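Q: Could you fold this chain for me?
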Amino acid sequence: MSSQTDMPILSYWDIRGLAAPIRLLLEYTGVPYENRVMVMPKPEWLEYKKTLGFDFPNLPCYQEGDLKLTQSSAILRHLARKNNLLGKTEVECAKADMLADVVGDYRDSLVRLCYNPKFDQEMLNQWVAGTGDFQGSPLKSRLENLQRFLVSGIGSWCAGENLTFVDFLVWELLDHHRLLVPGCLDGFDALQQFLVKFEDLENIGKYLSDPRYKQFPIWSCRAKYGYFPL
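A: Sure. Below is the predicted structure, expressed as structure tokens.
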């Protein structure tokens, strides 16, 4: 059994942010790890990170023995490789990689909205409808794309018949949306079924019902939307 000293360590701010899919995957594997919360002013962190021995110091950061990683995508894929969650066929691997990039684009759109210093309800409405500064990119179209991709494949997971790392990314993205835009998944039955199926995974269900899991804050306190619970 791992001792406290040789547990993997995942370090991040006390938010969901970029580390949430990594936490979900670690919880799914059932391997003990330390969720190290960084609580310090940013200027202090900028100095402190230089002392940690990472090649490219940043958050989230992950340490597993002598291996030290930054960049959320690299950490997630490392854990996926270790746990056979990259995909079991070439097609699954390729689809998982493609969808991971799509999820990143969709997440970035939501992040830019929530961190916009001029954010207000009208801006949120425009973002959902694809009007104003968001002309031509309604949320409904993005959700339709995700649902179409999900139902067009073989199996009920995003890349095919087998659970892969991208399912953790998609669950996190959809959960952000249903929390911040209540009702946006109405009518998207396949997406809602996917959420339920993912949450029914034994270790995931345990984690989501554990006090260690927090729905909010999604983003940092600099965000205008998504830090405080609605």
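A (continued): DSSP finds nine helices and four strands in the chain.
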